[in-house]
Amino acid sequence: MKDAGYGALLALQFLTRLPVPVVCPWTPATRRWAARSYPLVGLVIGVLLALLGMALRDAWPAPLVALALLSGWVALSGGLHLDGLMDLADALGCQSSGERRWAIMKDPHVGSFAVLALVLHLAWKGMLLWVLLDEGASLWALVAIPALARWGAVALLVGVPAARDEGLAHAWQKSLGHREAWLAALPAVAVLAWVPGGIWLALVMAVFIVIYGGAMRRSFGGINGDIVGAAIEGGELWLLLIAWSWWSYVMV
Which residues contact 249 (CB under 8 A, 6 or more apart)? Predict the structure, then answer.
């Protein structure tokens, strides 16, 4: 059980900016438990966002609540996954392929495609939060969305090989198997019963990961840490869009 505890704390340290004043060992066992805990970390993020939204919803206008939620969302993750999204955007924006794209992704400089991707992504995310608030959507949907997106990251790590025998994605994959993806799904599935359209969100997330993973395999030969981080951001945006569609067209 010590490995399970360290793994959960390792996931919290890795995926958030929440203070965890514990030195967690980096071993195959703790990596496996950390991957299984990815959706749990998403649940923590989601609960904090839902509580923030509940505290502000009746006091602030919807645009300001949406902005506060978006700011909190970025702050909790420290922008870690946004960095991956920006690196991926620069690489895909290049007209070249193969090694040139890979070199651009690893370049620490920020290009124009990265800036455009960041601005558009945050704009879409903020606007979807705004319209969900206007539709009177349950803020508990915000609990399921970060959890499902982080389950998607585990599924990606398990299902798509690393493009290179180096980096974080490769290090994680050395300790992971299909069992981790199934175990990681348990906390996300448990909360879906409380979220309107939750099963639909889970199915859509699975489809997103299959399509995204195939696209990354064709474009780069596999995945790396940036691609996994971008999957979390892209998954959250996709789930917000599906949640808005559900509340707009089904819950009427």
Answer: none
Q: Is the pTM of this model over 0.85?
A: yes
Tokens at 169, concatenated: 């994605």
Q: Helices marked H in 58-177 — which ranges?
A: 62-77, 80-93, 99-106, 112-134, 141-159, 167-173
- Given a contact cutoff of 8 angstroms between Cβ atoms, the answer to whether 208 and 234 are in contact is yes
pLDDT band at 131 (very low <50, low <70, confident <90, very high): very high
Q: Could you give the CA distance from residue 95 to residue 178 in angstroms, rounded to a whole number?
A: 35
Backbone angles phi, psi at 146, to 5 degrees: -65, -35
Q: What is the pLDDT of residues 163-217, one digit of tens each?
A: 888 777 888 788 888 888 888 888 877 777 777 777 888 889 999 999 999 999 9
In 3-state terms the chain splits into helix, strand, coil percentages (rounded to 5) of: 75, 0, 25
DSSP conformation class of 46: H
pLDDT of 99 over the 80 cut = no
Q: Which helix (H) or strand (E) holds 224?
A: none
Instruction: Return the number of other C-beta atoms located less than 10 Å from residue 175's C-beta.
Output: 18
CA–CA separation, 148 vs 49, rounded Å?
A: 15
